[in-house]
Amino acid sequence: MRQDHLISATQLSRADIEAVLDRAAEIDADPAAWQGRRAGTVLGLCFFEPSTRTRMSFDAAMKRLGGQTIDMGPVESSSVKKGETLADTMRVVEGYADAIVLRHPSEGAAKMATDFVDVPLVNAGDGAGQHPTQTLLDLYTMRENAGLDGITVGIMGDLKYGRTVHSLASALTNFDVRQHFISPESLSLPRSVRYDLHASGAQVREHTALDDVLTDLDVLYVTRIQRERFPDENEYLKVAGEYQIDVAALEAAKDSLTVMHPLPRVDEIAPDVDGTDYATYFEQAHNGVPVRMALLDMLLANAEPEGDR
User: Fold this and answer.
1) Given a cut of 60, is residue 309 above it in pLDDT?
2) Residue 82 annotated to the active site
3) The whole model's pTM is what?
4) Domain range 132-285, CATH architecture
5) Catalytic residue among 53, 111, 205, 254
6) How many CA atoms lie within 13 A of 286 on its CB side?
7) pLDDT score at 257
8) Maximum pairwise Cα distance, the chain
């Protein structure tokens, strides 16, 4: 993979994706062999929004490679509260770290930040925009459970504000995948995302009910209705709880169906699904470590002087 930064899933070709997933599989098979590979490397974690899995898995990934992390900490206790700009924060952190992971509530913030740093920068989520490393671990999980060609994927829930959805849908156009999108009309795909999918040759099939397509699915990717993204609380309340699945709702599904979720979940997947063969969302969360180890190792290798590679 030849990338300086990872800002959007649209940057990734099929070859890029397969290179990261293949490296992640090597790491997953023998994690001990990768310890110390990035000794002396420092990763800066800059999270302007709450995070559990993404922050902790990047932290674990860097440490399992033998490196260390420094964390900006909560926005409330940082110089951001004093009015420091994102550009200045990034310039400062670049002086401390060999690579930066940035999560920010504003769409486009990660792209803008790359104008001010030379070290590799990874977008860990920018508002309702993109979340490309989540997509890589989603694709890894799919490949391990269902394959990545000749499958039918249903993506259900918040398709309007869901950055995981926008990234995943884009990346899936690199493979032989039939995509179905299931959501309330008010949370359907944004026009810009729909346009990009069409431009990539994807056929966008949209539904308001899971039953319309459930029997065809090899993968069901469920997302949370994101209360924090709604500008109007009343609009959230109209759709909250509208898209939920339990074991009974999956009765007509293929026995081999893979149910995924980027987490956190609220009530969109009932706990009774957890014990079934369908559930892969905790495996999916685990996969964040080997996938992010692979990505960091490759980005840092790209940043090395030619003679050091």
Assistant:
1) no
2) yes
3) 0.92
4) 3-Layer(aba) Sandwich (3.40)
5) 53
6) 9
7) 98
8) 59
DSSP state of 89: H
Q: Taking the domain 9-129+288-308, which CATH number applies? A: 3.40.50.1370
Cα-only R_g, the chain: 19
Beta bridge mates, 207: 182
Domain with CATH 3.40.50.1370 in the chain: 9-129+288-308, 132-285
Q: Is 210:154 a contact under the CB 8 Å cutoff?
A: yes
Residue carrying structure tokens 């431009």: 199
CA angle 250, 141, 173 (to 5 degrees): 90
Specify whether the CB–CB gap between 285 and 106 falls below 8 A: no
Phi, psi (deg, nearest 5) at residue 198: -60, -40
Which among 5, 55, 131, 292 is annotated as catalytic?
131
The active-site residue out of 5, 103, 163, 180 is 103
Helix (H) or strand (E) holding 110: helix 109-113
Indicate which residue of 54, 69, 133, 223 is catalytic: 54
pLDDT given at position 162: 85
Catalytic annotation present for 54:
yes
In this predicted model, what pLDDT tens digit does every residue of 104-132 receive, in sequence order? 999 999 999 999 999 999 999 998 788 99
- Name residue, tokens 């649209």: 10
- Is 53 part of the annotated catalytic residue set? yes
Q: Provide DSSP, 276-292.
A: STTB-HHHHHHTHHHHH
In this structure, are residues 300 and 120 in contact, taking their beta carbons and an 8 Å threshold? yes
Q: Is 261 helix (H, G, I), strand (E, B) or coil?
A: coil
